[in-house]
Task: inverse folding
């Protein structure tokens, strides 16, 4: 029954809240298949969150794996009153921040790290990725994180604000500013 719902959700824009709630409840009961389905639905957003904090693909992969281990261990503590995706990304962000404090690494995304981001659309060419990466590099780290969270996980701005512990007005203004920077950068590339 959950498998059919997973297939339906994957065909749509992203995983729906009720499905993720049901999967987390099943994970809390020890259902490994539910964890696998939850993983398939959230892995891209989890990896993007970890990578946006850590800027290192190996560390991001480690944190993403740790996040799903944490979900397995703590699914019973999740309360189905909020967004399951926001809960998952909060777990990931907290693990990534701990890793960052431990390693104190900062830097930009390398080509390999960029290519490790899962492409949401199958028609994204390497040239498109290169143009988008160049455009994203014009953004501040926080602007890039807000844009990637919105694009990769489909979180609403209010959820991003809660996740990043920022006022909603700040997230909205940074998102609008980031989109304007991206538009300017991409239009400039088209004219060249």
Result:
């Amino acid at each position: 029954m959950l498998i059919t719902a997973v297939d339906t959700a994957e065909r749509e824009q992203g995983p729906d809240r009720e499905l993720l709630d049901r999967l987390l409840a099943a994970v809390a009961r020890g259902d490994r298949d539910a964890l696998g389905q939850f993983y398939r639905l959230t892995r891209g957003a989890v990896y993007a969150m970890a990578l946006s904090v850590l800027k290192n693909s190996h560390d991001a992969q480690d944190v993403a794996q740790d996040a799903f281990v944490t979900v397995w261990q703590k699914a019973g503590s999740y309360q189905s009153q909020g967004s399951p995706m926001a809960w998952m990304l909060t777990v990931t962000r907290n693990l990534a921040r701990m890793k960052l404090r431990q390693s104190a690494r900062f830097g930009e995304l390398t080509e390999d790290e960029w290519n490790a981001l899962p492409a949401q659309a199958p028609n994204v060419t390497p040239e498109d990725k290169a143009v988008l990466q160049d455009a994203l590099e014009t953004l501040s780290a926080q602007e890039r994180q807000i844009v990637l969270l919105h694009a990769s996980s489909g979180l609403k701005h209010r959820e991003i604000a809660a996740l990043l512990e920022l006022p909603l007005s700040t997230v909205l203004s940074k998102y609008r500013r980031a989109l304007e920077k991206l538009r300017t950068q991409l239009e400039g590339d088209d004219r060249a």
